[in-house]
Amino acid sequence: MEDIDWDAVRRRLYYGNRRQSSQNDWDKRAGSFKDRTRDRSYINQFISLMKPQKNWRVLDVGSGPGTLALPLAALVSQVTALDFSEKMLSVLRDHATEDNITNINTLQLAWEDNWEQDIISHSVAIASRSLNLPFLRAALEKLSRYALTWVFITDRVGTGPHDPGAFAALGRTLPSGPDYTYTLKILQQMGYHPSTDFIKDDPERLFPSLEEAYRSFCWMFPSMTGEEEKKLRDHVRSICRLHPDGSVAMQREHPTTWAFIRWRPSLSMNIRRPCNNNRNDL
């Protein structure tokens, strides 16, 4: 088993089944992330499992609009929010200004960029739902390199945030692909002893309007025909309950589950790297 290059195995599954989001994709989605309360259950569970300390300096890689960086700022000494989407970081800075938060630094960097000129070691590093990338081992090594005490990540379980009901409504095949089990294998092969908990999204989510509820599904389908758009709207309408003020409560049949994985970067046993001639550094 130790001779299997799990990073390469995962990469083949990744390229065969998943679409990697580009910076432009996330820039386009930035406006829809202005509501900071929609992921409250996820945020609370992540922070509860993380158990932040007041003296921590936290590196948040793939921070997005500050989903975790903003609430963590009140609980730790400093947060460095790193993302490759400047528009996401702009949303984060707007919220920080609005809430008079002054201990968050933002950096526009991607996983594959050279961080050495901009980032120093932090107490902990986190990567929340931001590991949709082909060269996973290199990303995990990078997180471990810049964290002194802990690394905390979340990775998808099964189909992750892709909703089976929506794919069935459109008559599309739900793409499969590598989930957190491959991440655990790669970490173990790196010599770490990761531990895992699970974060389960609330089955019911609130949206200010039916249109916002519909848009929360559109990222799953980058291109739709007019007929598919109608089918998706019908599906969303069928799982939503309309309130008198126009807001809606959406009841998903398959709420998302995330694997919360932690490890101590200083405790690697330095298990040898499998033989692999492919590029796997960022």
Strand numbers in spatial order across the main sheet: 3-2-1-4-5-10-6
Uncertain residue segments: 270-282
Provide the domain count: 1
The largest pleated sheet is described as: 7 strands, mixed
The helix content is 25-40%
Mean pLDDT over all positions: 88
Q: Give helix and strand order, one letter per element, not per position.
A: HHHEHEHEEHEHHEEHHEEE
Distance between the first and last residues' Cα:
25 Å
Assign the CATH architecture: 3-Layer(aba) Sandwich
Describe the structure.
By secondary structure, the protein is α/β, with parallel strands linked by helices. It has a single domain (6-203, 255-266), classed as Vaccinia Virus protein VP39 (Rossmann fold, 3-Layer(aba) Sandwich), CATH 3.40.50. 34% of the residues lie in helices and 20% in strands. The protein contains 10 helices and 10 strands. It has helices at 6-17, 23-29, 40-50, 69-73, 86-98, 136-145, 164-170, 180-189, 210-218, 226-238, and strands at residues 57-61, 78-83, 104-108, 122-128, 147-156, 195-200, 204-207, 240-242, 248-251, 257-263. The strands form 2 sheets. The chain has a 7-stranded mixed β-sheet with strand order 3-2-1-4-5-10-6. The longest helix is centred in the first third of the chain and has 13 residues, at 86-98. It starts with 5 loop residues before the first helix and ends in a 19-residue tail after the last strand.
